[in-house]
Design a protein that fits this description.
Elements lengths: L1 H13 L9 H6 L1 H6 L8 H9 E4 L2 E4 L5 H8 L18 H12 L12 H4 L5
Antiparallel strand pairs: 1-2
Length: 127
Amino acid sequence: SQLSRKKLSKDILSAFPLNKQTNKQNLLGDSFSLLFNLPVIHQDPIMEIVDQYLFKYKGFYFVRNQTSAETIDSIESFQIQDDDIFLITYPKSGTVWTQNILSLIFYEGHRDGTENITLIDRMPWLE
């Protein structure tokens, strides 16, 4: 109905402050186009920041500078051997220290066996 349309138009316009020089009659008659021409926010601002550091792959988020889609795909075909050793730790709980200790145990305490091999080559990270 015409009455409910005018009320809706006034309700819509009351949400937007109008300049005194704005022709209110034109806006009332064109309120629906005003409503549909509102700026659309495509993404939450926090997600713009997150997207700088993370990427989404197969429904999960990963840190950009620590892994890639190729690495993730290679993990899916990773073959576990009977003599594989897994070190699973919480962040900031002494992971590097534990990696070095395990390397020394593996090389029977001979530091010569580990000093020329980088840590990532001695104990690669799956992720």
